[in-house]
Amino acid sequence: MLLSNSLCLSHLSWFSHMFILSLLSLLFVYVTCLIVWAIFFGPSFVCYETFDLECLWTFFPLLFVCLMFLPLVWYSPLSYQITYFLTAEQWFFTYSHLLPTLSLLLGISNDVIHAFFLPELWVKMDLVPGQITPISLVFPFTGVYRVYCAQICGTNHSVIADYLLVY
After folding, report:
1. Pairing mode, if any, of strands 2-3 and 92-95?
2. How far apart are CA 90 and CA 129, in angstroms?
3. Of 161, 110, 109, residue with least CA distance to 133
4. Strand partners, 131
5. Per-residue pLDDT reduced to its tens digit, 56-76
6. CA 115, CA 125: separation in Å to the nearest integer?
7. Taking a C-beta distance cutoff of 8 angstroms, is the pair 69, 97 a contact?
8. Is the pTM of this model over 0.90?
9. First CA to last CA distance, the chain
10. Which residues in 41-77 are b (16+ Cβ under 10 Å) and which e?
11. Domain ends where: 74, 91, 117?
12. Within this chain, do residues 102 and 146 fall inside the same structural domain, yes or no?
């Protein structure tokens, strides 16, 4: 079976956050060095009457954006306690357990393409035969959620409606 590449997305998003933060830091240092160079060592024609204002509206918005992305240093990908399995078949979904509020489902279809659709969370994921699809779910509340199949997968496709119990 093929494991979908999206299982590594949480680590990829951490990498992209660190990459963005590194680029912003380099840009901030570069602009600061250019401003300092222009003030102290630059040619005299650079320092005209609005130069101070231009330095301010370049430096402070850049500082604000860098500070806005600073929490990404402490960002960590979601860690799941247990992985649960979801199997889609002709007229029903099968779950391995009840789900906690932070869940990682590994879904697969046994026959045709199905679409796991959870409207309360705005989640729709295709389940392809022979391919394991990770579905990351963060439920806001415990309770019962209605699950549908959003793919026309055969006769009585609209009958595939199930309930998901979240504790």
Report:
1. unpaired
2. 12
3. 109
4. 2
5. 888 888 888 878 877 766 766
6. 5
7. no
8. no
9. 30
10. eeeeeeeeeeeeeebeeeeeebeeeeeeeeebeeeee
11. 74
12. yes
